[in-house]
TrEMBL record:
Coiled coil: none annotated. It comes from Actinoallomurus iriomotensis. InterPro entries: AAA+_ATPase (IPR003593), ABC_transporter-like_ATP-bd (IPR003439), P-loop_NTPase (IPR027417). This is ABC transporter domain-containing protein. PROSITE patterns: ABC_TRANSPORTER_2. The keyword ATP-binding applies. SMART domains: AAA. SUPFAM superfamilies: P-loop containing nucleoside triphosphate hydrolases.
């Protein structure tokens, strides 16, 4: 479904990604985990056509995102919850999103219910939303087209414990119904609870990948994560 093949990215001399390769399959939540500045957002931006790889390729359904017919309907993305127009209501935001990908307006009401923003909240302007409400709206935007692939950059940022639980149940349900979910975070404990597989990145390089059990090998995942990221730091200093 999603495949990164030897992707490297350099920003004016800064090596943000270095030979990154991994795949994300259907029916599975894949956690993309790494410390701040590791390269997670850069990788997801390349995957969704918002940045260009210096070398290598990132594909969805075997093609570059921009080459897909109506990509917004097949690939749901949440890349920046701050990018919403503050003067539009939640309902207007989703209505525009639905129109862009050719969906009927009835889908907007369904999605507002799904993300817990129905009733009066749907008709308030986004500028007055809490960070958690904005995250829910962005998740709703990503789910409008009932996508087969979901790409979410730090989706639990700003969510309270109930919101985090809600997100976990939602993502689990989507993966169980066959969706491929790629979810980035620097929060190990959040990702550990929802991901079937993990891809660990540090300083732009893939440090390890596998199931939680494979990566922790009898230790806590936190110990493994800290050791791998410390080694990555040492190898570049
Ligand atoms: N547009 C850009 N111009 C220059 N450097 C960039 C740009 N975007 C990212 N970088 C650099 O690339 C590296 C990776 O950044 P990136 O945002 O992908 O990391 P991240 O893992 O998503 O971090 P975080 O968890 O803090 O969001 C960092 O060194 C960052 O400063």
């Amino acid at each position: 479904m999603i495949e990164f093949s030897h992707v490297s990215k350099t920003y004016r001399g800064v090596r943000a990604l270095d030979d990154v390769s991994f795949a994300v399959g259907p029916g599975c939540v894949t956690g993309f985990l790494g410390p701040n500045g590791a390269g997670k957002s850069t990788a997801l931006r390349i995957l969704t056509g918002l940045a260009r790889a210096t070398s290598g390729s990132a594909t969805v359904f075997g093609r570059a995102y921009a080459e897909l017919a109506n990509p917004g309907a097949r690939v749901g993305t949440l890349l920046d919850a701050g990018a919403l127009h503050p003067g539009r209501t939640g309902r207007e935001t989703l209505t525009l999103g639905a129109m862009m990908i050719g969906l009927p307006r009835t889908r907007v009401g369904e999605v507002l219910d799904l993300v817990g923003l129905s009733g009066r909240e749907a008709d308030r302007v986004v500028g007055g939303y809490s960070l958690g409400m904005r995250q829910r709206l962005c998740v709703g935007h990503a789910l409008l087209g009932r996508p087969e692939v979901l790409v979410l950059d730090e989706p639990v940022n700003g969510l309270d414990p109930q919101g985090i639980h809600w997100m976990r149940v939602l993502l689990r349900g989507l993966a169980d119904s066959g969706c491929s979910v790629l979810l980035s975070s620097h929060l190990l404990h959040e990702i550990e609870q929802v991901a079937d597989r993990l891809v660990l990145i540090g300083r732009g390089r893939i440090l390890a990948q596998g199931t939680v059990a494979e990566l922790s090998r009898g230790r806590s995942l936190e110990e493994t994560f800290l050791e791998l990221t410390a080694n990555a730091d040492r190898s570049v200093s």
